[in-house]
Amino acid sequence: MVKTLSAEQFQSQIVNNYTNVIGKQVGGQVLSCSDEFFAEAANLIKPGKAVQDLTKFVPTGKWFDGWETRRHNTEEADWVIFKMGVASAQLIGVEVDTDNFKGNCAPEISVEAAQNFDSDDITEWETVIDKVECGPSQQFFFVRDQGLTDKNYTHVRLRMYPDGGIARFRAYGKVVPTNLTKGAVIDTAAVGNGGVAIACSDQHFSPASNILLPGRGVDMSDGWETARSRGADHFDWVIVRLGAATNIKKVVVDTAFFRGNFPQKINVSAISTSDESTLSVKSDWTEIVPNSPTGADKELEYPVDGDAVYTHVLLKMIPDGGVKRLRVFGTTA
Length: 333
Prior knowledge:
Helix content is 3%, strand content 42%. By secondary structure, the protein is mainly beta. It folds into two domains: 2-176, Galactose-binding domain-like (Jelly Rolls, Sandwich), CATH 2.60.120; 184-332, Sandwich (Jelly Rolls), CATH 2.60.120. The strands form six sheets. Strands 16, 17, 19, 20, 21, 22, 23 and 25 form an eight-stranded antiparallel β-sheet that branches. Strands 1, 2, 8, 11, 12 and 15 form a six-stranded antiparallel β-sheet that branches. It has a five-stranded antiparallel β-sheet with strand order 3-7-13-9-10, with no helix packed on it. The relative contact order is 0.16. The mean pLDDT is 96. Its EC number is 3.5.3.4. It comes from Diutina rugosa (Yeast). Keywords: Hydrolase, Purine metabolism. This is allantoicase.
């Protein structure tokens, strides 16, 4: 059973609690497709909204920032196969965006998934989103029945019937990592290890979820940057659910590319809870990194002592600014 949500419902229920596991920023890949005559399938997993340029034409015709196939497909559907950027994930819901595709959008889509840790050669697919209608230049948000989401997958296939164009495709899921070995020190805030930014004060320029991405990024756009604050005693904050309960040994805050807009100070606290419904910035947090000055374009390391185990961390930027990455290293409980 598939449920359709509004944009606001999808943001609060899915985006804020799960990860886009095929996104380019987490390492997702387009492995193959049936056709991409007018526009490349790789555009589907790019971050951000699709760009429109009404004056731009290429040798095949009008330029589109999305995936567009030839007309008159003789097969049942065109398709794209994606490899997740994480080890595996339980699939919860998908977003299909046909932005700027008006007379050439995909009329219907379905989504399939497969689990194969050893190879990208997939021969058997399971339907996770039954065939559903789409329409011109809109966003569609589909969520699976929670009773069907227990299995973890490694690959996803998007099908559109019979042909047409889609601007962006996102598949959200609960990351199931393969390296949470007891005793090993790992970054449990990392998106690949199941870390999720579940709430924040502000993300005016770029989303807080970026701080959990792999690597140090390419520019300011793939970090977390807030609006300038003007009030007294202001701070911006983000709450991160760790991929596993963690005895934290070290926190790393990276301000890469933030050269004139890094926070004056940062502060990190942690908590252990099984009830996120009551979790807020005002909860009973334990400070693990006191107010500490930052700097431009650098990685800052803070050792953490103690045997306590935590499930969530709270990063504060004082009073505002931008952070590229947050790393929380420790041993899993």
